[in-house]
Amino acid sequence: MEHSLFSKPRDLFLDIVNPRDYVQIDSVSHMYQSLKNSVQKPLKMILLYGRPGTGKSMLLHKLHHDLSKHQKVLMVSTPIVDEDDFLRVIAQNIFGHSPREVMTLNRFLEISSALSLRDTPIVLLDEAQLYTPSLMEKIRLISDARAIKFVITLHKTDKEDIIAKEHFQTRIWESIELQNASAEELKIYVQKKLLKANCFDVANMFNDKNMKLVAALTKGNYRETNKLLFSLFSLYCWYEENHPSRIQYNAIKPKWIEMAAIHTGLIHA
Amino acid sequence: MLDIKRLERRWLKYKIKSFLPYFITLFAVLSVLIGISLWFNTEKPADHNRTDTQKTIVSPTAEPLPPVAMSDHNKTVLEPSMEFVQAFQNQSVTSEPETKLPPVALPAPAVNKPVRPIPAPPKTLHMPEYTPPPEAPAGLRAVPTVSRTVTNDKSLSINRNESKLDIEDLQRRFKETSNANLGLFIARYYYDHGDYNEAYNYALKTNNVNNRIDESWILFSKSLVKLGKTDQAKKTLQLYISQSNSDAARGLLDAIEKGNFK
Questions:
Q1: Of B2, B161, B179, which is closest to A238 when you measure between CB atoms?
Q2: In chain B, helix, strand, coil percent, each to 5?
Q3: pTM over 0.80, yes/no
Q4: What burial class does residue A197 get, using C-beta atoms within 10 Å of its C-beta: 0-12 exposed, 13-18 middle, 19+ buried?
Q5: Using CB atoms, which residue from A27, A188, A259 is nearest to B165?
Q6: pLDDT 10s digits, A65-108
Q7: How far apart are CA B29 and CA A240, in angstroms?
Q8: Helix, strand or coil, per DSSP, at residue A174
Q9: Is the pLDDT of residue B238 over 80?
């Protein structure tokens, strides 16, 4: 099974956020460029939002990967809900200072002004909708004081729209919305990912009809696409081991795409 | 991890479920059509039945006894039946001139002749109402063809997509690795994007690397056709078929010869 033609493509679509796996698509790279430009501007806070699975986390990780070569950047992938812990982690990672006493906002700002770094450090906050309103308020105050520049990602749901309104709309800065991929973009995403890993023969198996079906099932959601293709290639691995004669090596079987969709819950059967 | 048997069963269930609305619609349409045709059929037989009943009633007139038995239940029924008898008599008389058979049996009804002839057959004149439509669509058909060409044009313009693969990078990698699958991928990319010259080049390069890939030969021949070199494409396909006996290549050759692929 490990030597299967499909095991490598299967592992490519594991849902792991790794900036090295970042696939450049025109619309996303345009977003990324504008995000990078925004970071260079003297803005206090940048908001990156969109529906789940539109690639926000990946973009944030990519930004961290690229910026960390030149300046101080801290990536907070998992939200730190406790206010004291949050300020302490930032102080330690950005300013290299971890006081024993309780970390208050004032103390944090004091440390920041005492160090007065040449470039404003950047903190990237993923899943910011999980932070409490009071902590969001502190984040806003820190950014207002220009102690730290924040780039935050939010899921675009009704509830989170309220957070966005309360904390960001009046003091913006910059906001970038990520959209789901179109069928054409999804095709490029899948093919680029396969070609990057030298899976040429598997890349050749995908035709427009296959990709339209994948796009229709996942609605252009990158995470769902990864999940679907992971199950699809798992199916192929199984068939390759148990019924190799049933595999057509010149095209992907729509039936198996649908079976993978049933397995991942995209189709309720 | 994957229970394929169960997954296949669920897929089958899903397929049946997804096709069910179509089956129901088809069934409904068919039953409506059958209903309509039955309705039309029953309309005509109703007339026939009438004449049949008339005929059956006529025979009792020769023997007047059975109607008396009926009158026990409903007298009103008897009166119209008498009319029918007269009508039938008229009918039988009117039929006389056509057949010119023994007029001896019924001499009296001669008076009733003009009263009600048998206009029943003209009912068949209703049928022609359904025939006129075939001529009209001929004029109308011209319009959809025009709109179709317009939509085709639109779809062509939509096909121009800004999103691109890093084709230069792939070309560079093909140069380095000479991987036939990558060559085929590039050829297919160019063919899909209408760049038949490049598609031809890369299919040719792929064939040089590996001359046993069906699709590559097909892409090569298709590109030749698109470049206006149909004869060369045919020769290539014939040569390839003689070596590989490929069904796909044969299919393409047939399509080119019949003019289905241009």
A1: B2
A2: 80, 0, 20
A3: no
A4: middle
A5: A188
A6: 999 988 889 999 999 989 889 999 999 998 888 777 788 888 88
A7: 44
A8: strand
A9: yes
